[in-house]
Amino acid sequence: MRLGVTMFATDRTMPPHELAREAEARGFASLYLPEHTHIPVARETPPPTGDAALPAEYARTLDPLVALAAAAVVTERITLGTGILLPAQRDPIVTAKAVATLDRLAGGRVALGVGYGWNAEEGADHGVPWKRRRAVAREHVLAMRELWTREEASFRGEFVAFEPSWSWPKPDGRVPVLLGGAAGPTLFAHIAEYGDGWLPIGGAGVREALPRLRRACADAGRPMVPVVPFGTLPSAGKLDHYASLGIEEAVLRVPAGDRDTVLPCLDEYASSYL
After folding, report:
1. Does pTM surpass 0.90?
2. How far apart are CA 19 and CA 25, in angstroms?
3. What distance in Å separates the CA atoms of residue 67 and residue 31, rounded to the nearest whole number?
4. Distance set, CA 60 to CA 142, 185, 256 (Å)
5. Distance from CA of residue 90 to its chain's centroid?
6. Cis peptide, bond prior to residue 84, ω within 30 of zero
7. Distance of CA 7 to the CA centre of its chain
8. For the purposes of burial, counting CB atoms within 10 Å of the CB of 121, is it exposed (0-12), middle (13-18) or buried (19 or more)?
9. Cα separation of 71 and 81, whole Å?
10. In the Cβ-directed half-sphere of 218, how many Cα atoms lie within 13 Å?
11. Please, what's the largest Cα pairwise distance for the chain?
């Protein structure tokens, strides 16, 4: 099984390009970075962690595409991914250009993990109609894919519209779009329609969910997509369980800290699980 890592990269953590270089040197297969553009101070949305207060790193998150561009120039093999990027909060034309540029610089090593978001106030500042955010995210991804794959791209939807247009660079191959979120019919229908895989956060309940995802893919007339448990705290038993389900990659969580905090964790994971 391939193993990747993810860290809440902030202005106070180990720089992500250094993390990417150290992870690649130890044999890890991927590095994923999260996204929050900002955190409104006045917020009614409860923290997704279940804590009384939102951890400080949420408000200090680096832009993942900029951070991964820095990682691209100091690595050669490791997959560079977003985990997760919030497409409903981004202009799809600008984001398509940024992702394609990153993928070119990285030699086709980019994976786009996307999600719908949990922070209603953050989304509101971007003009996202919160109850429609899944539909907005879907259109933004579909519009980006048009720009990535067609010499003259156009799109007309409910939330995105542009006339035939030129946009280069194109990605160096297909950028896989992996959808994050809890198991459910809406998520699985979206994965089956336009996704290239599922990022189940934490990885709990994967075995029970796999038949439903497999049926959704079959109903859409396509093969089963990869499942990549994301942000996992590993144990030998857990990784063996994933492998028994046919899962080929898992992304392990490392602490949001400095080098003295992160590198011992990488060393422990590498010596125990790689």
Report:
1. yes
2. 10
3. 11
4. 29, 33, 11
5. 14
6. yes
7. 12
8. middle
9. 11
10. 6
11. 53
pLDDT digits (tens, 9 = 90+) for 213-225: 999 999 999 999 9
Distance of CA 217 to the CA centre of its chain: 20
Bridge partners (DSSP) of residue 10 are 61
Q: Which residues of the chain have pLDDT under 70?
A: none
Annotate 109-162 with DSSP letters as a single string. Answer: -EEEEE---S-HHHHHHTT--GGGHHHHHHHHHHHHHHHHH-SSEEEE-SS-EE
Helices (H) and strands (E) in the chain, counts: 9, 10
Provide the β-strand partners of residue 31: 5, 80
Closest Cα to residue 148, out of 80, 96, 210, 198? 96
Neighbouring CB atoms inside 10 A of 176's CB total: 17
pLDDT at 246: 97
| Calpha distance 98→66 (Å, rounded) | 9
